[in-house]
Amino acid sequence: MDAHRCRAGTRSCSAAARATDALRLLQIDVHPLKSGTIRSIPSTTVQPRGLADDRSWMLVDGEGRLVSAREAPRLFTVVADTPATDPAVPAGLRLRTPGMPDLQVAVPDDEPVDVRLFSLDLRARPAGAEADGWLRDVLGRDDVRLVWCHDPSRRTLQPGFSEPGDHTAFADAFPVTIASIASLRRLNDWIVERSLELGEEPPEPLPIERFRANLVVDGDEPFGEDGWSRVVVGDVPFRVGKPVGRCMMATIDPVTLTTSKEPTRTLARHRLVDGKTLFAVHLVPEAPGRISVGDEVRAE
């Protein structure tokens, strides 16, 4: 096993039990619409379900199944804001994208409908025909519908890595993810090394946004997060759930909407554990509170 790898679902690695200091919170990213444009904000409220309004809305197809940027990359161009990401939004959701008029979506009050997030059967409130039509025009699909998570407490987390009462909205797995700039630097170095070995032109360094984490920190050694079991941001405590297994989403450039082999090719070489390529870690809030860019981050 590579020196920087950590066995999925365990705390076993060379940095285990080592308290980490001198970390700082560099970035807070919220995604009100799942797979929509990342909204970077200076501060936010942490709730039991995660950051305020993070992944509270998502698109589903005609059968109620998740539609993400994996299937519809143009979702990356949809800027979705709530009062948590833009105080100018009075309530609900504001949608924007080039070439389309802005659309204000009210908080839905219709009866919940069945939706499916991967293998999870959930309930959500439909946003209505106007929002559906706007998004269908943007994506060039006639089957998508916008839904809102009206009750995140109904969504439990993965058994074996969670505790009773843990919950979230439409995040893939856990309420919060945290990523390290130090780890990204090491990954980009590996990508260059591999490109040169294969006689390829090294690509531009990947930005941290490729991994769509909520919290971005710097100050620790590369992949020091493999050994964390608990993180405190400012005064808000989090429990580490498990490492994040990356999917093809990270291979899509959110600006050009093109795909490439990276970072999957290089992560598979250095960070492959139990068939999953690992980058960043999942967190579960242990208490509510307020966090801001610049906060001290203490990890152990």
From TrEMBL:
SUPFAM superfamilies, alphabetized: MOSC N-terminal domain-like (SSF141673), PK beta-barrel domain-like (SSF50800)
Domain MOSC: 150-300
An example molecular function term from Gene Ontology annotations: molybdenum ion binding
Top-level taxonomic group: Bacteria
Protein name: MOSC domain-containing protein
Organism: Nocardioides ganghwensis
